[in-house]
Amino acid sequence: FEFNVMVVGGAGLGKSTMVNTIFKSKVSRRSCQPDEEYNTPKTVEIKSISHVIEEKGIRLKLTITDTPGFGDHVNNSNCWQPIIRYINDQYEKYLNEEISIRRRKRIPDTRVHCCIYFIAPSGHSLKAVDIEALKKLVQVVNVIPVIAKSDSLTLEERQAFKERIQQDLADNHIRVYPDMDNLDLDEEEINNNVELMNRIPFAVVGSTASHLVGSKNVLARKTRWGIVEVENSSHCEFIHLRDMVIRTHLQDLKEVTAQVHYELYRHERLET
Amino acid sequence: FEFNVMVVGGAGLGKSTMVNTIFKSKVSRRSCQPDEEYNTPKTVEIKSISHVIEEKGIRLKLTITDTPGFGDHVNNSNCWQPIIRYINDQYEKYLNEEISIRRRKRIPDTRVHCCIYFIAPSGHSLKAVDIEALKKLVQVVNVIPVIAKSDSLTLEERQAFKERIQQDLADNHIRVYPDMDNLDLDEEEINNNVELMNRIPFAVVGSTASHLVGSKNVLARKTRWGIVEVENSSHCEFIHLRDMVIRTHLQDLKEVTAQVHYELYRHERLET
Ligand SMILES: Nc1nc2c(ncn2[C@@H]2O[C@H](COP(=O)(O)OP(=O)(O)O)[C@@H](O)[C@H]2O)c(=O)[nH]1
Ligand SMILES: Nc1nc2c(ncn2[C@@H]2O[C@H](COP(=O)(O)OP(=O)(O)O)[C@@H](O)[C@H]2O)c(=O)[nH]1
């Protein structure tokens, strides 16, 4: 089982920390430490890290791809291009394998099943770069936007910001995951998804440090003022993100990638 | 006595909150409330707010100018231009008055004496836009860089970030205030300034809300995890910024503006 996630967003929004947090939050439960903590070079190239994790008794090769400082130049026109190209390259690889006469029984799947887009916690609205990048990204991949470093917002600021972002997405016709049009759902699933859609963008916090809270050692970010518990849903929505991506919607994210995004790519490639 | 400060930086970095914080921190001490709390429209134009405050028994008309969301476009080439133009317009106004035959006894001084530049708390390094903007700004005005919303960094992250910024400034030959070359100082003043220079960029936090801490009502930002006390120097460096700008270096900021920046402008204008 392969599952491929990509993290996209400006430098310093905690993407690399989040990559490690996701692995630590899944891996440490099975008392099997990640081989190495992935260090943040000032990424200038697209870098992936993979680990085998266990989810519901199923072993899964989770690969998370970190993208370079995005939107960090004076002129950021088309800064999303390298990311779109990487995503399409994976479709291309898959397509070549698929149409090959001597193709392997099981085609290695490096297609990006889910792109987590990090929004800076400005408290105002989406930036112009975010809007342009998201418009392009949702055309080729499942995108789940998150509010990065959400511990820098009060709960009131967070809620107001979230609503503003949802408005910005609607105004710009940006359909993030889950896009109800792509799903074949029963009534209960629809309700769950509507609830999820109202929560997106998830307000996340990342940390690989453990701290003692009460009698438990938990993943947390310790600041001068207190301890932000990463896996405590009354502190932030990391758990919602993690469970949606790796548990409840994993299968669906793969299916939509294969049946919607990849099919679109294949269609356009084979026509030309 | 007129003193003019400008705040510059990206949207959502807490500039408008800082404007109010500075006034509240000065004005409330004299039990004289600001007439109105300056509201953050999504500023699309340069806006000023003035209050008369008392400092060391001297009444001072403090004017703070808030600049529009800076660097918020996809392409931010020359986004500093409107700000540079505003600064030069004030020199132009002063010059016209100064060279006028029928000039007023006391020339109204709208020149920007100090520009506070807000750096996003990414934890990495200066962004390309910051470097380009700072290079241009220090040529025309006294610039004091600050780390915005510094409560989103741990003390370790803050110190590492500060040192990296100081390195970036040095590497790019960006001389922020206080620029020792511009000052005529005795030994004690030199030592104080060296200490200040090592602390810049100040790690600030802004808030206009008051909260009870112990038995005192203090300006603070209340989050889910604790109370960030704005005027507590073990929490952030707002006090250092405020005291430097409004107390210890006020006179010097005005003198350097008049004798260095304005003179340079005047020289270039009268030659052409
Ligand atoms: N306040 C806050 N800081 C964070 C969080 N996650 C990471 N950081 C800090 O933000 C800085 C940049 O994080 P990093 O993961 O390198 O960001 P990247 O450039 O997006 O990969 C580091 O100092 C991190 O410790 C978070 O959830 N909240
Ligand atoms: N974490 C944190 N948030 C702040 C701080 N100052 C302001 N904010 C919040 O950041 C958001 C944007 O602030 P604002 O003053 O409008 O920023 P501006 O666009 O630069 O003028 C608001 O939700 C503020 O409450 C601060 O020092 N720390």
UniProtKB/TrEMBL annotation, chains A, B:
The keyword Nucleotide-binding applies. Residues 1-272 form the Septin-type G domain. Keywords: GTP-binding, Nucleotide-binding. The keyword GTP-binding applies. Belongs to the TRAFAC class TrmE-Era-EngA-EngB-Septin-like GTPase superfamily. Septin GTPase family. This is Septin. It comes from Clavelina lepadiformis. The chain holds residues 27 to 298 of 362 of the full protein.
